[in-house]
Each structure stands twice: as C-alpha cells, then as structure tokens.
C-alpha cells in the first residue's frame, strides 16, 4: 500500500481547513467604521446660487439633471477631443504605471492569503561521509568507516490564525488594493482633464493666430495706403513710419503665438504616449462656449471623487494594521510535521522500514521586548489618526476645488459678455478714427492707438473664452468626472484569482 507511506505528512494539510474554521471566530483589533465626512448643510454649492446682474452667461445645470457618467469629455461635443481622450485611455504611460501598481497590490493579497495554509517543503539529499578512526579511545566497529545516506523528507509547518493576525493582514492588503484602484482612477481623471485643457488652449492659440494674421493683413493694407499717400505728396513720412511700426509689432506677435501652441501640442503627444516629433494637430480656430455642467448636490461629492475614496480605503488599511499590532501581543502556535524515507542504500530507500516521521506543536511568546510591540502599536494608531485627518482634508479640498471652479467659470462668462461689448466698441472707434484720418481731421497716430486698443480687446476676449473652457474642465475634474464609488472594485474583486498571463513581462 504505497499510498500510505506519506500519510502522516499530509494529515496536517487535510485537517488545516477544519482547524482554521474553529479558530476563525477570534479576531483581535478594532472594528472599522468608515468616518463621517464633514457635515454639509447647504442643499447646493454656494457659488452655484450667486445672482449676477446679467441675464445671460454661463449657468450651472440643475442639481436634478443627470450626473456625468463615463466619458465626461463628451459634454463638450468636440469629436476631435473625444478621439484624443480614447487614445489617452489606451496609450498613456502614466496610466499603465498606475495599473501595474494596482496589479502588484492584488498580488500582495495573494501573498497575505498564502499564510492561511501549511508550508510543505521537500528536501531530498544524498550524503557520503567517513567517521574518524580516533573518535573513541576504545576500538569500535563504527569508527573509521565510510558510508552513504539517502534521505527523502517532506516537512510541513502550519501556524493557525488564532488571533486574526493573518486575517488583518489580508484585509489590509485588500484595502490597499482598493486604494490603488482609486488612485488609478484619480490619475486617469487628472490625465484626461490635462488633455482637455491643453486641447482648448491650442484652439485658443489658433484663434489668436487668426486674429493676429488678420491684424497683420489689415496693417499691411494701411501701410500700403500710407506709402501711396506719401509718394503722391498727400501724406507724410511720419504716418508711413507709424504704420510700418504697427505692422512689424503685429508680425512679431503673430510669430510668437507658435511657441505656446507647439508646447501644448508636445504636451498632448506625451499624454497620448507618442513621440512629439511624430505628432501634430491641425489648425482649427474655433470659438467655444462652456456647456452647463451638472454638479449634483454637495452631499454627493464624497461618493464621486476617486481621491477621497483612496483616502478612505487607506484609512481602512491603517485600521487593519492596528489589529496586526494587537495580534503581536498574543502567543504564536506552530504545528510542524515531517515524514519521509531514509536509507544507507538507494535500493532500499523506498522500502517500508525506511520510513521516518515526526509531528508536534510548539508555542512562542515574547516575554520581554523592551517595549517594541507597544511602540509599534502606538505607531499604527498614530498612522490611523494621520490618515483620518488626511481623509477629512481631502474632502474639504474637494469642496474648495468645486467652489473655486464654479466661481471661475461664472466670472469668466460674465467677463466675456463685457469684453465682447468692448471689442465691438473698439471696432466702432477704429472705424470712426479711420474716417477722421481719411478726411484729415486726426493724425495717423490716433489710428494707431485705436488699432492697438482693438487688438488688445480681441486678445483679452480670446483669453477669457479659453479660460472659461479650462475652468469648465476643472469643474468637471473637481466633481470627479464620470466616476463614482460604485465603480470601485470590492474586496472580493481585488482578491480574485489571477494568472501568469496577467503579469506578463512587458517588452
């Protein structure tokens, strides 16, 4: 009956689940209770209810409107941006880094769980030795001999989780994996928002380029007109010099626009995981108006921010580590067993009389450690308290960012209304000044002043329109994008079985 030769070795593995079930009811450490976020008494965000004198301008969506879900950038109705965001989700190297960090956190759950089970070790060996002939003062048949020893043992060792230390370690790793998943979502939102901001900045630069190109063309015509007037003796050289200076200044400004556009384009290429040398965006001067962003009610914000979810899961991890600290104060019991075969001759190694075995429990308890365990427990408690403060601060910062983005978007829209009127008035003033110059009432210097005023007003309007779009993106980011806490993987999902294919070495 060869199947019985190793039965004592595997008894421990067979009874381990039963023993584990008997002791699983005992778990040392505080029970975790998610902290209450800072109280929110207002039914709406403060900056979403501010009254403005103007009837028009950007308005926040009704709190009852459907919240953003999934691809939040689609609210801007820009197909080119949609395509870029999809590329970012696939190719962004920073997101790949955060994803691998999450996979590493999942692997650590499996590492912690492995402690639930016995450790089996096979250690086959062969040894050739000779004893000393001078081992004893009296002659002996066993001294001065050469012999061989074949050994095929299997050792088993199991430390039952009597005080829940391993369970706390598993829970800590599960919470850490959930925090890592939330950090991945938070970084994804950051990268997506950066792409949207750069995109609208580029379109603003394209519009500015158009404004300056049109200004250069108009200034060139004015210079040609003044040159013709001077050559016919009607005009003067001062007007020609002033027109030429105005043209050259506009040309310099038009050339400078390309610098920022190129830098934004390079930044987008990097976000997409592409070499900036091989990437370009076509020029498209477009005017945008920020859409109404559904903000929901303040009480929903905590559930929508990945960074808050990560902070809360980190707090849960710290609570589990306190349990680990408590478990160190209790004795550790280890059950060990060993069995195998041993023979001086290989041909007899697998004979029944060659069997060997041993089994027995052991317990260890630190009697004095100089206060090490107590200090470690105090450390875990302090870390928990620090993480609690970090969680509350993350929540307060989230509300601040929403309020900041709301007021920025509203104020940008109000400034745009006024600046649009300023552009119209500057254009009217320039038209009148050109008429007065043509009739000889005013010198050309007054035309230059009017041209400069119009260009400055147009540039300011373009900047405000870009700022409004960027503020709208920042508002979406502050609200958590299209994410909410229900998308966070559960502890069971983080601990789901993985395969070697999930950890394939990247080339």
Structure description:
There is one protein chain. The chain is α+β, with helices and mostly antiparallel strands. It has a single domain (27-119, 163-329, 372-494), classed as Up-down Bundle (Outer membrane efflux proteins (OEP)), CATH 1.20.1600. It is 56% helix and 9% strand. It has ten helices and five strands. The chain has helices at residues 7-23, 79-91, 93-113, 165-231, 237-271, 301-304, 306-327, 372-438, 444-478, 491-494; strands at residues 119-122, 125-130, 146-158, 332-343, 355-364. Strands 1, 2, 3, 4 and 5 form a five-stranded antiparallel β-sheet that branches. α2 (79-91) crosses α4 (165-231), α4 (165-231) runs antiparallel to α7 (306-327) and α4 packs antiparallel against α9. The protein is elongated, with a radius of gyration of 38 Å. The two termini are 51 Å apart. The model is unreliable at 1-24 (pLDDT under 50).
Brief description of this entry?
56% of the residues lie in helices and 9% in strands.
List the helices and strands and how they pair.
Layout: H1 7-23, H2 79-91, H3 93-113, E1 119-122, E2 125-130, E3 146-158, H4 165-231, H5 237-271, H6 301-304, H7 306-327, E4 332-343, E5 355-364, H8 372-438, H9 444-478, H10 491-494
Antiparallel strand pairs: 1-3, 2-3, 3-4, 4-5
């Amino acid at each position: 009956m060869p199947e019985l030769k190793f039965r004592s070795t595997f008894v421990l593995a067979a009874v381990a689940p039963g023993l584990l079930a008997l002791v699983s009811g005992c778990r040392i450490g505080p029970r975790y209770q998610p902290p209450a976020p800072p109280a929110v008494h207002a039914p709406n965000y403060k900056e979403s209810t501010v009254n403005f004198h103007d009837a028009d301008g950007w308005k926040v969506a009704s709190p009852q409107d459907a919240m953003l879900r999934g691809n939040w950038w689609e609210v801007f109705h820009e197909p080119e941006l949609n395509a870029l965001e999809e590329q970012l989700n696939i190719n962004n190297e920073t997101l790949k880094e955060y994803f691998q960090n999450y996979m590493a956190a999942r692997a650590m759950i499996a590492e912690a769980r492995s402690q639930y089970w016995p450790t089996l070790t096979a250690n086959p060996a062969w040894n050739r030795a000779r004893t000393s002939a001078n081992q004893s003062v009296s002659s002996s048949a066993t001294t001065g001999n050469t012999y061989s020893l074949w050994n095929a043992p299997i050792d088993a060792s199991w430390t039952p989780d009597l005080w829940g230390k391993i369970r706390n370690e598993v829970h800590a790793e599960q919470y850490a994996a959930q925090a890592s998943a939330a950090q991945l979502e938070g970084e994804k939102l950051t990268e997506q928002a950066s792409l949207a901001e750069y995109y609208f900045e580029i379109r603003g630069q394209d519009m500015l380029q158009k404004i300056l190109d049109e200004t250069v063309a108009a200034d060139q015509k004015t210079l040609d007109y003044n040159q013709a007037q001077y050559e016919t003796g009607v005009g003067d050289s001062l007007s020609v010099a002033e027109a030429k200076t105005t043209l050259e200044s506009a040309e310099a400004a038009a050339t400078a626009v390309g610098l920022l556009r190129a830098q934004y384009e390079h930044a987008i290429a990097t976000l997409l995981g592409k070499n900036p040398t091989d990437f370009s965006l076509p020029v498209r001067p477009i005017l945008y108006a920020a859409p109404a962003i559904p903000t929901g009610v303040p009480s929903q914000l905590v559930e929508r921010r990945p960074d808050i979810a990560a902070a809360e899961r980190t707090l849960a991890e710290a609570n589990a580590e306190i349990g680990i600290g408590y478990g160190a104060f209790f004795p550790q019991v280890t059950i060990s067993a060993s069995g195998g075969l041993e023979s001086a001759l290989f041909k007899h190694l697998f004979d029944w009389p060659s069997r060997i075995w041993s089994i027995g429990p052991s317990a260890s308890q630190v009697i004095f450690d100089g206060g090490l365990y107590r200090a470690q427990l105090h450390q875990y408690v302090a870390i928990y308290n620090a993480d609690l403060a970090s969680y509350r601060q993350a929540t307060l910062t989230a509300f601040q960012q929403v309020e900041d983005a709301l007021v920025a978007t509203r104020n940008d829209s109000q400034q745009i209304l006024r600046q649009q009127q300023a552009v119209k008035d500057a254009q009217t003033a320039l038209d009148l000044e050109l008429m007065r110059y043509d009739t000889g009432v005013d010198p050309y210097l007054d035309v230059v002043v009017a041209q400069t005023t119009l260009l400055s007003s147009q540039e300011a309007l373009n900047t405000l329109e870009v700022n409004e779009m960027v503020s709208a993106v920042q508002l979406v980011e502050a609200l958590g994008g299209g994410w909410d806490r229900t998308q966070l993987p559960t502890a069971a999902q983080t601990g789901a079985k993985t395969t070697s294919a999930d950890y394939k070495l990247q080339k």
